[in-house]
Request: fold
Amino acid sequence: MNLYIAGTFHDPFVESGEAVRILTEHGHTVVSQWHDVDVWRPETQQSTAEIRAGIAAQNYADIDRADAVVVIPLVGHHLRGAHTEVGYAIGRGKPVYVLGDERSMNTMVTHPLVHCIASL
Reply:
């Protein structure tokens, strides 16, 4: 299954590559790219706004290629982009799986496409 990871690069589970490794070991393909440091901090002459716009466009394209979105919330951290990605995924009819503490995901966890699971 092609999976998009929604979360924050500040999460050690994401930053270390552990999330991608575990999902890959379970036979999935991770299609999201934002958590790749070369994507997140590209060496370019673009402005910050241009970099962010490019990453956002790539994120939407990656969600379109995914079969599902896996949200990895970080307790105590507001998942600004992940909320947008979850809403986009729901709008595209994609299932969303919130891994761990869903309290940081607000009311979107009540949507029928959103499933909360304790761990991998």
Remarks:
- The helical segments are 12-15, 18-25, 37-40, 48-65, 80-91.
- The two ends are 15 Å apart (CA to CA).
